[in-house]
Structures are given as structure tokens and as C-alpha cells.
């Protein structure tokens, strides 16, 4: 119930199964419905061409929903619930069935498109809740009638209505009752059989009405007359489509329109002969027809117009002919016999009609002509001279001339021909074959608008008139513009090869500049500053170099509209380089400080690196890291030599040559020479009278002053002395700690001690003066630890205790000797 479906026998079994399967599933849950996420920032959702078989789920905030060209077979009463904000809904090319309450929740809907579906019965319940609907399209559905109930009675805001198809057979008063006024009415009734007179007569005011009545005009002129008479008003634009005016009877409906004093008439896609044209002019004789348009005309006959000579069409103001095909044109005598018509119009357009010449005699007849459009024809430079009578003063009131899209090649010829058109303000000579521009050209002094787009121009010369206010040179091969045009307000240069903006001072009054689709890489504030009055810049679709200066200028000044308004949209300004930014919008590009301030970045980085380096060096110095590195390097270097010497000595001489290596400061040399050396190398028995006392043994000491080999590296001497001595005696004092050489000796002894070649007891520490462990530099961590774990000797200041000091020292030295 509530669904209008075509008969089951017409549905493929698989499709019928999907319909009811989807219906059953969706009644239980929306979780199985597909989703459409193609919605933009304006809440316009384009879900067309997506092969949906059910209405997809979209955001409840959607304002526009396009579901056209899908395979939706049914719209249920639940599909569109929650879309109370929806303004536009298109189901074009979809539904076979629509529930009677499918649109009940769309209170805000303003436009509904149900065209090109398979709707056979239109349910008046669809529109009950659509009080805001303004546009409704029901075209090209296979319904034969609009139904027994008034469809549009509740659509109080309806302004545009389209209905009908090849299947429509009848229109009655009840079908369209309730419609008071329309801006546009479209009725497709090529096979219409019944029309109730007055059915459309109540629609007033009626702006534009489009009627496609091919069949009635041929076979049922009374129906066509009644229908055309109901919609013909002096203020209504009547457009008739798909007509074949082959007989006199086919013109009968125009008599009804003539009685209504119709003023605006257009015939689209019409086939007519010269005889029917004459009859049409006779039928509309005296009618205040001001606008007559033929679009898509096939004309037959021989051009005999004599019978229409006496007709009155003084009100005719504009004649528009487009896409005209004249069959057997070689049989046509002339159009001169229509001269009685040519004297009235102020606007004449003959577009894409195969015109290669308009005789000068015809031009003389156009005495009131102000607007002439001969675009997309076959005019040449030679035939244009005939058309404009070689500039002999015809078309004196002409203000607008459009001869674009012809076969003209000489810009000089065109300028000379239009010079005598003393009131000409607009000239369109675009889409012709101009390959060069002469240095000077005569122009009418009134010329304000000139269009030379889509030609083959390579340069701009002073040929252009200085009176121009609007100049269009789009789609040429220009790369520069060096011409002062003081009156110019609009300049269009899109589709050329400009690398930079033209100099603004040449156009002091320029307000609009279009330079899209060129090869611009950037523009700056200084470039725009030269345009004193520029308000609108259109420079998108160029090959922008997204360097820091341009990106910063675009984002800070252009995007915030501090400088210029971009009417072509910021999304058209895309990066072409560098490669990693290609295709991205300039307004959304982010460049790092490395990209934008490379020199500053390098300078700051180097400065910071220098500061960090200095701080690291200070830290390493405080932590004595340099000392450790220097010692490691020296130790490794010396170690190789030590190993080599050790092998040589092992082969040639005993390894140990000294009882002790004495390491001391030069400032403590007096104590070593006066006390230590005599006591150990030249011992004397203090108890000489005691015969039982054991004489003291003399010890061999290694002193750097006398035992280091001259000419040898000092480090090698130190390493050799330590290795060749049983013990190493350090004379520790403040002087020792400040001596570089003592530090070397202590350092290498430190390495030797913990390298495994020397026993820890082989080191003897003598404190020449009181020193605590904290006085030892922290970099000698092992030595500080050794002082905390090993007994050391202190030089007594009291003379009575010195004998004990020497005895203890000899014991320490003999202990090593005994162990050896």
C-alpha cells in the first residue's frame, strides 16, 4: 500500500527480488543501507552515477541531494526522514516506485526532479506536505494522465512546473487546478489527444511557456489552438518546440495566439517552407509581435515572398535566427522581397546559418538596425566588404556588431570597414584567422568594446584604439602587452603566454584583469600596486612557483583581501613547482623556515652549532674528556712501540733494569737529589758501631734527568722507564699535580697499572706534603681510588721519624725485589 509500481510482469525477476529484499531489510534497520559521503562544505551532496539500488544514507544537514542516474527502484517512507532541511532533491533517471509518504518530512523542499523515470501513476499524496516547493519536474515518465485528483493544489509556492511525455494523452482542468501563477511552464504533449479547453487558462501571470505539440499541430489543430490560446498573453514568452509546419492547417493554432496579441514568440526545431512563412506573416498581420525567434530551422522552397508584402509588422523589434538550414539554396531567388520586414527591427541575429554574404542592398534596408549578429557564418574579407557596402555610410545607427567565428583574416580590412559606423560601441571579431596586427588602424571614435579573442595574434601594436574600455585578447599567442590604454577598465588576457602581469601604469583606470591560463609563475604586491584602481583579479590556472615570497604574499595579503579580490576562486591558484607541491592550492601550502629563510637558517644554525660546540667543548673540558682522548691516543701509539721493544728486550737483555722509576716534579728535584737518591743508591749504616747490623743494599733508580735516552720521543721514554722498573714511585705534591710531565708519567702509569702488565703493588705513593684524596684531580679516578685502598708513605717533617720512613720505603722496594 502506498506504492505505485509498474506491473510485476514488466519487472525482471532479479530486480523484483532486490526490491522486496531491500524493502524488508530497511524496515528492520538502517544499518544495511549504503552511505554517500560526497558532500561539500555547502552541504550539497552529489550521489549521482553511484549505482545505488536504494536511497543511501547522507548527513541530516544536507541542503541539496542529487541521486540522479542510479538504479534506485523504490523510495520508501523512511528513506528521507530526518531531512527536514533539504532544499533540492533530484531523482532523475531512477525510481520505479515511490511511497505515498516518501516526501512527507521534506517541509523545506524547494526543488524536486522526478523526470526520466518509469512513473506510470502520479500520486497526489506525494505533494501534500511540500508547501515550500517552487520547482517541480515530472517530464518524460510513461503516465498517460495526471490522475483524477488535483496534483498541485497544495503547492502554493510553485513557480516552475514541467510535465508530460510521449505517453501523455490528456490534460483536464482538474489536473492543474490550484495553480495561480507560474514563472515557467513546460508541457510535452507530442501525442496529446484530449485537452479540456481552459485547463491552462487560469494560470496567470505566466512568464514563459514551453509547448512541445508536434502531433496536435499536424493532426489535431483544434486541440493545439485551444491549448495555445489558453497560454498566450501579451506579456508571456511562448516557445513552441518540435513543429512541422507543412500545411496551411498547421498554422491554424497561431490564429488563436494572434487574437491574444502575442508579443514574444520562439519556434525551436521547426521545419517550414517559404509558403508557410508567408502564411505565418499573414496570420500575424497587425499583431504587435516584437520578438520573433527561429532556432533550429529547416527552410524549404524557392524564396517567393510576394504575398506577404502588404502585411504590417511595424512592432517587430528583434529577429533571431540560429542553426538555419536552407534546402536547395540554389533555387532561392532572394530575401530582398522581405525588405518590408527589414526596415523595422533594431536587433537582427543570423547565427550559424551558412551566410557567406549579405548584399549591400539588404544592408541599406536595415535603416533602424542597432544590433547585428552574423557570428558563426562564412563571411570573408571580400564578402564583408559587400555586407558593409565598403564603408559607404550604411547601418548608420549600428551600435553592436558581432562577426565572430567567420573566415576573416585581415584586421586592417575590418577596421577600415567599420570606421564609418559612427555610433558603433561594441565590436566582436573573435574566432577569426588574424595572424598579425598592423601598426596603425582606423577605428570609429565611439568604439568602447573590442573582442579579438581566439585568433592567432603574437603581438599587440598601437593598432588598438585608445578609446577602449573593454578589451578581450584571450586565447592568442601573446607574451607581452606594451600599449598605454588610459580609458581601459576591463582587460581579458586568459589563454596566452604571459610570464608576468602587464605593467599597471599603462592602464590607470583598469578595474578588472583576467589573465588565467597563462604561464605566470608569481606576482607580488609591487606588481599589483602599479594598478591604481584594480578591484578584481582573475589569475588562476597558471604555473605558479610556490616560493616563500609568493606563498606568504598570497596567504597574508590576497587571502585576507587586504589587497585584491579573486573572483575566480582561490582553489584555481595551484602550485606548479617545486615538484613536491605540484597540484596543491597556494592558499593551503605550508613552507618551513628552512624553505623560506635558507640563508638565515644556515646562519642561525651555524651560530647555534658554534655555541653548542663551545658549550660541549667546555663541558668536555670540565669532564676532562680531552685528557682521556689524548691519553688514549698517546697510550695506543706508545703501546705498539712498547710491545715491539718488549720483544727485542726479551731476546737481547733482561726486561727489568731499575728497582724503581721516580716520577717527580722538577720543583721537587732538590728533595729527590738531596734525600731520596743518596738514601737509596748510596745507603750508609746509621749504626756503624754495631758490628751485627746488616749493611743496607744499594738500589738502582731511574731518573729522567740522567736515564732518559736523548733524541727519543718523551712518551716513549716514560713508557720505557715504567716498563723497565720494578716499581714506580710517585713523589706527590702540589708541584707534582701542576707539572705536565708528571701528569704524563702518572697517566701512563695509570694505564700501565690497569692494562694488566704491572701489579698494583708496584706503585708506591710518597706524599711529600700533606695531600688528601680530594686534592687529586677527578680525572685520575683510579688513582683516587688507589689512595683510598692502598697505604702510602708520608714524608715526615720531624727528623726523628725520617729513619722509619726510609726503612718502610726500603721494605716496599725489597718486597717487589724478593717477589721478582
Automatic annotation (TrEMBL):
<keyword id="KW-0325">Glycoprotein</keyword>
<dbReference type="GO" id="GO:0005886">
    <property type="term" value="C:plasma membrane"/>
</dbReference>
<keyword id="KW-0472">Membrane</keyword>
<feature type="disulfide bond">
    <location>
        <begin position="360"/>
        <end position="389"/>
    </location>
</feature>
<dbReference type="Pfam" id="PF13855">
    <property type="entry name" value="LRR_8"/>
</dbReference>
<keyword id="KW-0812">Transmembrane</keyword>
<feature type="transmembrane region" description="Helical">
    <location>
        <begin position="599"/>
        <end position="621"/>
    </location>
</feature>
<dbReference type="GO" id="GO:0006954">
    <property type="term" value="P:inflammatory response"/>
</dbReference>
<comment type="function">
    <text>Cooperates with LY96 to mediate the innate immune response to bacterial lipoproteins and other microbial cell wall components. Cooperates with TLR1 or TLR6 to mediate the innate immune response to bacterial lipoproteins or lipopeptides. Acts via MYD88 and TRAF6, leading to NF-kappa-B activation, cytokine secretion and the inflammatory response.</text>
</comment>
<feature type="disulfide bond">
    <location>
        <begin position="441"/>
        <end position="463"/>
    </location>
</feature>
<feature type="signal peptide">
    <location>
        <begin position="1"/>
        <end position="24"/>
    </location>
</feature>
<dbReference type="InterPro" id="IPR003591">
    <property type="entry name" value="Leu-rich_rpt_typical-subtyp"/>
</dbReference>
<dbReference type="GO" id="GO:0042497">
    <property type="term" value="F:triacyl lipopeptide binding"/>
</dbReference>
<keyword id="KW-1015">Disulfide bond</keyword>
<keyword id="KW-0433">Leucine-rich repeat</keyword>
<keyword id="KW-0399">Innate immunity</keyword>
<dbReference type="InterPro" id="IPR000157">
    <property type="entry name" value="TIR_dom"/>
</dbReference>
<keyword id="KW-0395">Inflammatory response</keyword>
<dbReference type="GO" id="GO:0045087">
    <property type="term" value="P:innate immune response"/>
</dbReference>
<feature type="disulfide bond">
    <location>
        <begin position="39"/>
        <end position="45"/>
    </location>
</feature>
<keyword id="KW-0675">Receptor</keyword>
<dbReference type="GO" id="GO:0004888">
    <property type="term" value="F:transmembrane signaling receptor activity"/>
</dbReference>
<comment type="similarity">
    <text>Belongs to the Toll-like receptor family.</text>
</comment>
<dbReference type="InterPro" id="IPR035897">
    <property type="entry name" value="Toll_tir_struct_dom_sf"/>
</dbReference>
<feature type="domain" description="TIR">
    <location>
        <begin position="656"/>
        <end position="813"/>
    </location>
</feature>
<keyword id="KW-0391">Immunity</keyword>
<dbReference type="GO" id="GO:0043235">
    <property type="term" value="C:receptor complex"/>
</dbReference>
<protein>
    <recommendedName>
        <fullName>Toll-like receptor 2</fullName>
    </recommendedName>
</protein>
<dbReference type="InterPro" id="IPR001611">
    <property type="entry name" value="Leu-rich_rpt"/>
</dbReference>
<dbReference type="InterPro" id="IPR032675">
    <property type="entry name" value="LRR_dom_sf"/>
</dbReference>
<keyword id="KW-1133">Transmembrane helix</keyword>
<dbReference type="InterPro" id="IPR017241">
    <property type="entry name" value="Toll-like_receptor"/>
</dbReference>
<dbReference type="GO" id="GO:0002224">
    <property type="term" value="P:toll-like receptor signaling pathway"/>
</dbReference>
<dbReference type="Pfam" id="PF01582">
    <property type="entry name" value="TIR"/>
</dbReference>
<keyword id="KW-0677">Repeat</keyword>
<keyword id="KW-0732">Signal</keyword>
Amino acid at each position: 500500500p502506498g506504492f505505485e509500481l509498474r506491473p510485476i510482469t514488466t519487472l525482471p525477476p532479479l530486480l523484483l527480488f532486490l526490491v522486496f529484499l531491500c524493502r524488508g531489510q530497511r524496515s528492520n534497520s538502517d544499518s544495511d543501507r549504503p552511505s554517500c559521503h560526497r558532500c561539500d562544505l555547502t552541504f550539497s551532496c552529489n550521489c549521482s552515477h553511484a549505482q545505488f539500488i536504494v536511497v543511501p544514507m547522507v548527513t541530516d544537514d544536507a541542503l541539496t541531494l542529487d541521486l540522479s542516474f542510479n538504479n534506485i527502484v523504490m523510495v520508501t517512507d523512511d528513506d528521507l526522514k530526518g531531512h527536514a532541511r533539504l532544499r533540492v532533491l533530484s531523482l532523475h533517471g531512477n525510481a520505479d516506485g515511490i511511497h505515498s509518504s516518501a516526501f512527507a518530512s521534506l517541509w523545506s523542499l524547494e526543488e524536486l526532479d522526478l523526470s526520466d523515470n518509469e512513473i506510470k501513476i502520479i500520486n497526489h499524496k506525494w505533494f501534500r506536505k511540500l508547501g515550500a516547493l517552487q520547482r517541480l519536474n515530472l517530464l518524460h515518465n510513461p503516465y498517460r494522465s495526471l490522475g483524477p485528483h488535483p496534483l498541485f493544489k497544495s503547492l502554493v509556492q510553485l513557480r516552475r512546473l514541467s510535465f508530460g511525455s510521449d505517453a501523455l494523452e490528456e490534460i483536464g482542468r482538474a489536473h492543474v487546478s490550484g495553480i495561480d501563477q507560474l514563472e515557467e511552464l513546460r508541457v510535452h504533449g507530442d501525442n496529446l489527444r484530449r485537452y479540456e479547453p481552459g485547463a491552462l487558462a487560469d494560470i496567470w501571470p505566466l512568464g514563459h511557456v514551453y509547448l512541445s505539440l508536434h502531433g496536435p499541430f499536424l493532426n489535431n489543430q483544434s486541440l493545439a489552438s485551444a491549448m495555445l490560446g489558453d497560454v498566450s498573453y501579451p506579456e508571456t514568452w511562448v516557445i513552441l518546440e518540435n513543429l512541422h509546419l507543412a500545411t496551411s492547417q498547421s498554422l491554424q493554432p497561431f490564429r488563436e495566439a494572434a487574437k491574444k496579441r502575442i508579443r514574444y514568440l520562439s519556434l525551436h526545431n521547426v521545419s517550414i517552407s517559404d509558403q508557410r512563412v508567408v502564411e505565418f506573416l499573414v496570420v500575424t498581420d497587425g499583431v504587435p509581435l516584437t520578438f520573433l525567434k527561429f532556432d533550429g530551422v529547416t527552410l524549404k522552397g524557392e524564396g517567393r515572398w510576394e504575398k506577404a508584402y502588404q502585411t504590417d509588422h511595424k512592432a517587430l523589434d528583434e529577429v533571431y535566427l540560429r542553426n538555419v538550414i536552407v534546402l536547395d539554396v540554389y533555387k532561392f531567388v532572394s530575401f530582398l522581397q522581405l525588405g518590408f520586414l527589414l526596415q523595422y527591427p533594431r536587433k537582427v541575429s543570423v547565427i550559424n546559418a551558412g551566410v557567406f554574404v549579405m548584399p549591400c542592398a539588404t544592408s541599406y534596408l536595415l535603416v533602424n538596425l542597432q544590433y547585428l549578429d552574423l557570428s558563426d557564418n562564412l563571411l570573408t574579407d571580400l564578402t564583408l566588404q559587400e555586407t558593409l557596402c565598403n564603408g559607404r555610410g550604411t547601418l548608420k545607427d549600428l551600435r553592436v556588431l558581432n562577426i565572430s567565428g567567420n573566415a576573416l583574416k585581415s584586421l586592417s580590412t575590418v577596421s577600415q570597414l567599420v570606421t564609418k559606423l559612427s555610433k558603433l560601441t561594441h565590436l566582436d571579431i573573435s574566432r577569426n584567422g588574424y595572424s598579425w596586427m598592423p601598426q596603425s588602424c582606423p577605428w570609429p571614435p565611439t568604439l568602447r568594446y573590442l573582442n579579438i579573442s581566439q585568433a592567432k595574434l603574437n603581438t599587440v601594436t598601437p593598432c588598438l584604439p585608445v578609446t577602449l574600455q573593454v578589451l578581450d585578447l584571450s586565447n592568442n599567442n601573446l607574451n607581452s602587452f606594451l600599449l598605454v590604454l588610459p580609458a581601459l577598465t576591463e582587460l581579458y588576457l586568459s589563454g596566452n603566454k604571459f610570464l608576468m602581469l602587464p605593467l599597471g601604469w599603462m592602464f590607470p583606470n583598469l578595474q578588472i584583469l583576467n589573465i588565467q591560463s597563462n604561464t605566470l609563475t608569481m606576482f607580488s604586491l609591487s606588481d599589483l600596486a602599479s594598478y591604481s584602481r584594480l578591484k578584481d583579479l582573475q589569475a588562476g590556472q597558471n604555473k605558479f612557483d610556490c616560493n616563500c615570497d609568493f606563498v606568504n604574499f598570497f596567504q597574508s595579503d590576497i587571502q585576507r583581501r587586504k589587497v585584491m579580490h579573486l573572483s575566480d576562486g582561490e582553489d584555481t591558484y595551484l602550485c606548479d613547482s617545486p615538484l613536491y607541491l605540484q597540484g596543491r592550492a597556494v592558499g593551503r601550502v605550508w613552507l618551513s623556515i628552512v624553505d623560506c629563510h635558507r640563508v638565515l637558517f644556515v646562519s642561525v644554525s651555524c651560530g647555534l652549532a658554534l655555541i653548542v660546540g663551545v658549550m660541549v667543548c667546555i663541558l668536555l673540558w670540565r669532564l676532562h674528556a680531552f685528557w682521556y682522548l689524548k691519553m688514549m691516543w698517546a697510550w695506543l701509539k706508545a703501546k705498539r712501540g712498547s710491545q715491539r721493544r718488549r720483544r727485542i728486550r726479551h731476546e737481547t737483555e733482561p726486561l727489568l733494569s731499575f728497582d724503581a722509576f721516580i716520577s717527580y716534579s722538577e720543583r721537587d728535584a732538590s728533595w729527590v737529589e738531596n734525600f731520596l737518591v743518596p738514601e737509596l743508591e748510596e745507603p750508609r749504616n746509621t749504626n756503624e758501631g754495631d758490628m751485627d747490623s746488616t749493611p743496607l743494599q744499594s738500589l738502582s733508580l731511574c731518573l729522567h734527568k740522567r736515564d732518559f735516552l736523548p733524541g727519543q720521543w718523551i712518551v716513549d721514554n716514560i713508557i720505557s722507564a715504567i716498563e723497565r722498573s720494578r716499581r714506580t714511585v710517585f713523589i706527590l705534591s702540589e708541584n707534582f699535580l701542576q707539572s705536565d710531565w708528571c701528569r704524563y708519567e702518572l697517566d701512563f702509569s695509570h694505564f700501565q697499572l690497569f692494562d694488566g702488565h704491572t701489579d698494583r703493588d708496584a706503585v708506591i705513593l710518597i706524599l711529600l706534603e700533606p695531600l688528601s684524596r680530594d686534592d687529586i684531580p677527578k680525572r685520575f679516578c683510579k688513582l683516587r681510588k688507589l689512595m683510598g685502598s692502598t697505604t702510602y708513605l708520608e714524608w715526615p717533617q720531624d727528623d726523628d721519624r725520617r729513619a722509619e720512613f726510609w726503612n718502610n720505603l726500603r721494605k716496599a722496594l725489597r718486597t717487589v725485589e724478593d717477589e721478582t
